[in-house]
Amino acid sequence: MRVATRNRERAKRLILLPTVEVVVADIHDHADLARVMHGCDAVINLVGVLHNGRGHASFREAHVELSRKVVAACREAGIRRLLHMSALNAATAAPSEYLKTKGEAEAIVRNAGMDATIFRPSVVFGPEDSFLNLFAQLLKVFPLVMLGSANARFQPVYAGDVAAAFVTSLERLDAYAASYDLCGPRAYTLRELVEYTGRVTGHERPVIALGDRLSYMQAFAMELIPFLKLLTRDNYWSMKIDNVSANEFPFGIKPAALEALAPAWLVQRTPRGRYMRLRDRANR
Fold first, then answer.
1. Rounded to two decimals, what is the model's pTM?
2. Residue 145: how many CB atoms within 10 A of its CB?
3. Does residue 228 lie within any of the structural domains?
C-alpha cells in the first residue's frame, strides 16, 4: 500500500507498518500523482475538506478539480479500479457548497468509465476524530454550550467500519459502478451527541439550543475568526438536511454503535482517565 501525504510527520505510525510505503507528494501536481500511482492496481481517494479555503484547498479544488486529476492519472497509468470517498447527501442541488462539490465529484467518478465505487458516509467517529473529541474540548472549557442547529440529525459511523467497507469492496464485482451509504446503527440530534460526550467525559454542561436565525448568526461569527475551524455558514447549510440513511450497511458488515466504542477514548479525558494514563507511562 502506498500512502500519499503532504506531511510525513503526520504519518509516523504508518511508516512502521511493513506493507505500507509513505510518500510525500503534492497530489494536485500531475507528475506527483503519476509517481504515486505507478505500479498500483487500485486507487483510493479519501481527500476532502470541511471548510472552504481556510489555509488549505477550497471545496472546488479538493473535491472537483482533484477528482478530475485522479481520474486522468488513473487512465494514464492504466488503473481501472477507483474507490472514492464522498459524503452522505452529496448532490449538485444540495444547499451547501460542501455537498454540491461532493456531488460534482461523484458525477466525475461515475462518468469516468472506470470500475469505480463511491462511498457516502455520515459523520465519521474514531479515537482521533474532529467530532466527538471537539465536543469534549469545548465542554471542558465552557460552563455552558450555546448550540446552533441543535436538532440537526446525524448517524455517526465508526472509522474502522468505513475502512472495512473500502477493503471488502476492492475485489467484489458487485461493487463496481455502485454507491453505498455508510451509517451507524442509530441516529442522534447534535444536542444528544454533545450531551452524551459531556456525560462520558464528566463535563456535563447546560446546552442552550439556538433558534434558526441565531444559529446562522453564530456560524457567521465563527467564520470570521481566522484561527478557529469550528463552524461556518456552509456547515450551517449542510446541517439543514438530516445526515441519516435508511440503507443497510454494505457487504454484511454490522456497524458498531457509538456507545460501544467512544468511551474507550473519551474517558481518557476525565481526571481519572488522565491519572491512569500517567500510571501506565510510569509502569505502575
1. 0.89
2. 18
3. no
Find out whether 245 and 181 touch, Cβ atoms under 8 Å. Answer: yes
Place of cell 464522498: 86
What is the total count of domains within the chain?
1
- The neighbouring-strand residues paired with 118 are 84, 179
The CATH number of the domain holding residue 53 is 3.40.50.720
List the domain range (segments joined by +) for residue 106: 1-121
Q: Residue written as cell 463535563?
A: 203
- Grid cell, residue 3, equals 500512502
Residue 32 within any structural domain of the chain: yes
Q: Which residue bears the cell 460501544?
A: 260
pLDDT in tens, 67-84: 999 999 999 999 999 999
Instruction: Please indicate, yes or no, if residue 130 is contained in any of the structural domains.
Output: no
What lies within 8 Å, CB to CB, of 106 at 6+ separation is: 84, 86, 90, 118, 179
Residue of 160, 178, 121 lying closest to 261 (CA atoms): 160
**pLDDT, tens digit, 9 for 90 and up, residues 210-263:** 999 999 999 999 888 866 678 899 999 999 999 999 999 999 999 999 999 999
Give the pLDDT confidence of 28-43 residue by residue, as tens digits.
999 999 999 999 999 9
88 falls within a domain? yes
